[in-house]
Amino acid sequence: MTTTSTNPTQAGSMTDLEGLDLRHLLHPHQRNQRNFRRVIVRGQGSTVWDSTGREFIDAIGGGIWVAQVGHGRAELAEAARKQASEVAHFTGFFEYGNDKSIRLAAKLAELAPERINRVFFASGGSEGVDTAIKLARLYHHHRGQSERNWIIARHFGYHGTSYGSGTATGIPDMQFAVGPNLPHVEKVMPPYAYHTEFYGGQDPTDFLIAELEQTIERLGAENIAAMIGEPILGGGGVIPPPADYWPRVRQLLRDNGILLIADEVITAYGRTGHWFDSEPRGMDADIIVTAKGITSGYVPLGAVLMSDEIGDVVSGGDSGSFFHGYTYSGHPLACAVALANLDLIAEEGLLKRSLTIGDWLQTGMAPLADNPAVGEVRVVGATAGIELVANPETHEGVSLELALDVCDELYNTHGVITRNYGPTIVLSPPLVLEEQEADRVTSAICDVIGRLDVGEGTIKPA
Questions:
Q1: DSSP SS3 for 420
Q2: CATH number, domain at 434?
Q3: Per-residue model confidence as pLDDT tens digits over 355-397
Q4: Residues of the domain holding 118
């Protein structure tokens, strides 16, 4: 084994940290063509600083949709400190428990939609989706329908990267070159009204319900355990469905005895102005998967919420137990931070503020409506997607390279951190974003996109 001579405890410059990173770290979704790193070392509110001391607006919530209450919250640090001084971890396996996981489960049941009263804790969203798939299959098995093991997911849906969740994710790269994926997972089209060409001129919901009906008939309703979907497509580019989509899907699934899993890893805990976005959209989900905003990213934690019926059946079936769990399920310190985080969201009115932030973003980006490089601007609460197009007539998106160039220009020129999901530039700032910070973000976006030369595939100099 070779090592670097640089002492990590003394590596304070960007160059030192970049070198250590490039030498030792394998990053999630790593892009190997980019031979540099951006090292963030401090944050406060909606602002972060890198290792050179440069300041940035975090317009993507910790880089990955998580930072509901913002960075540097002393209240969450204190909750972690206090819990660590009492008991940082003890297993939640078997009959063991701890006070914080119990109180958090009760709190989540209080906030959740009606029917949802049981909770299983994971360490994040991917584990949560794997758990939800197991729950759905176990539920049917214990009710004498073991053949119900198909899962219906959607193209462009994002459900995680582990074996089961990665198979459910509707992005082909996630399944590339890793051997056989989880069997019995079928994909259907999502609601994406901007791309009218997907639906052959039909009403999107009519088309999608017909497709789902045909899929159920082809697979056999008696063979299908559940359908999984995000209330709004997050990783697909912040795509809200037509108002009638989820109610009609819900009814069709119920008529065929199929469970509905709502993946709220992104949307729950205030991101779109509600504790749970699935409820006002009419999903009436049987299982809800959450993570990210439950702790605002301060500690890894996921929570899978389910109906009493599912909880009772899977824990009292023919096996006499629920043989599933993770080392850190119900981690006391993580649950203590989550409780403090949920208190902050409620006390500071961040659900309502999410909608206010959305208004600021919508207003600030209004000039983009006249830009031919912008196909659609979608704002849902404190989340936005700006879809860039090479051809507004055909809706053809810009290249991934050009979308990434836009994010780089925002970062380098304006000190604004965003992400691209394909040709869509995505915003998901902390719910404590100030109006002047929102103005800075939207002004930067209007400037950079205003300098796009789609024909040349370049951004003109400022």
A1: strand
A2: 3.90.1150.10
A3: 999 999 999 999 999 999 999 999 999 999 999 999 999 999 9
A4: 75-347
